[in-house]
Amino acid sequence: MRGKETLKGLRPYTPGRPIEEVQKEYGIEKIVKLASNENPFGYSNEVKKFLQETVTDLQLYPDGGAVALKEALAEYYQVETEQLIVGAGLDEVIQIVSRAYLTPDDEIIVPDPTFPQYAHHAIIEGAKVIKVPVDEKTGEMALEDMLKEVTENTKIIWLCNPNNPTGTYVSQEKITRFLEQVPKNVLVISDEAYQEFVTIEEESSTLAVLEQFPNLMVMKTFSKAYGIAGLRVGFGIASRDIIQILEVTRLPFNTNSLGQQAAIVALKDQDFIKETSRINREELTAWESFLEKYEMPYYVSQTNFIFFSVGDKDQEVTQYLLEQGFIIRGGLKPGWLRITIGLPEDNETLRKHLLAYLAK
Ligand SMILES: *Cc1c(COP(=O)(O)O)cnc(C)c1O
């Protein structure tokens, strides 16, 4: 049985290696996974309590409409519940959008490099992917260059802000100016999976201009700062019109009961998010000082990961670190590595290993 023609050049997603596998292969007890930008502090104590004490009714189907979660999100983000769509992770929302909007006649525009799932699903739908390189020096999305690629076939422009894997952030003001120039029949999506880590501006979310631009959609997730990647909850916020279209392609019971309920509890504990972000910032600063001291080029990050160059030895470095018990992410750009900001003591050990390798 052959798959669809569009699947030909595509591969299944390869996640960061599981901890147990690395433990076995190298016979190391302590493995630190810094490859998928999870929260090293785990999740809110409130969520822990909830999971231990309160989970009930798992024999029933989940609330397909995620009503309670949407109400909590609507209140927190000051939008209507009809402006929300919830997915089994943001990954699923990306798939839903692609399925609802893209045909083989369409084009999407993405930064390069960026989160690969935007292009992946566009290709499955037969759409054409236009990749626009980020600014080589700063790593920032090149919004002007992206605008130049807009044609009458453009259906979606994907922005990732801050961008994964570069970690760089584009100001709210620049995004607004960009939106003003994009034709109204083009859907602009701002993936803000890492927005909770941004520390440079009071108002860092594109949500502030949602009313102004009916062709704008903002995406967020509980997998990164909120720390419940394993429960799979992500969501999108847009105009009612867009959400109505997306709801048609969403599976009836896409998110599970546990995830929905835990997300409500997690959303309430903003102190946990603040503390996560505060320590992350300190640790990011330590990484920046280290990379500057040893003259390794890096992009300025507003996320919980940092992207830097180790010259042409990226694969050897990745392998060496793996043998020391650290799973990190290479293969995103030749010579460059992406490291999730981990616990303070793990960051320090990792820097020592990195230095030991480079001094060889
Ligand atoms: C991790 C990530 C996602 C997917 O998150 P899930 O909610 O776990 O599916 C989406 N976009 C970006 C940019 C990410 O880094």
TrEMBL record:
Reaction(s) the record says it catalyses: L-histidinol phosphate + 2-oxoglutarate = 3-(imidazol-4-yl)-2-oxopropyl phosphate + L-glutamate
Pfam families registered for this protein in UniProt: Aminotran_1_2 (PF00155)
Cofactor(s) needed: pyridoxal 5'-phosphate
Keywords from the named record: Amino-acid biosynthesis, Aminotransferase, Histidine biosynthesis, Pyridoxal phosphate, Transferase
Residues passing through the membrane, by range: none
EC number(s) given by UniProt: 2.6.1.9
GO molecular function: histidinol-phosphate transaminase activity
Domain of life: Bacteria
The protein's annotated pathway: Amino-acid biosynthesis; L-histidine biosynthesis; L-histidine from 5-phospho-alpha-D-ribose 1-diphosphate: step 7/9
InterPro entries in the record: Aminotrans_II_pyridoxalP_BS, Aminotransferase_I/II_large, HisP_aminotrans, HistidinolP_aminotransfase, PyrdxlP-dep_Trfase, PyrdxlP-dep_Trfase_major, PyrdxlP-dep_Trfase_small
SUPFAM superfamilies, alphabetized: PLP-dependent transferases
Domain Aminotransferase class I/classII large: 30-350
N6-(pyridoxal phosphate)lysine: residues carrying this PTM: 224
Keyword Amino-acid biosynthesis: yes
Family that this chain belongs to: Belongs to the class-II pyridoxal-phosphate-dependent aminotransferase family. Histidinol-phosphate aminotransferase subfamily.
NCBIfam families: hisC
PANTHER family named in the record: HISTIDINOL-PHOSPHATE AMINOTRANSFERASE (PTHR43643:SF3), HISTIDINOL-PHOSPHATE AMINOTRANSFERASE 2 (PTHR43643)
Assembly with partners or alone: Homodimer.
Protein name: Histidinol-phosphate aminotransferase
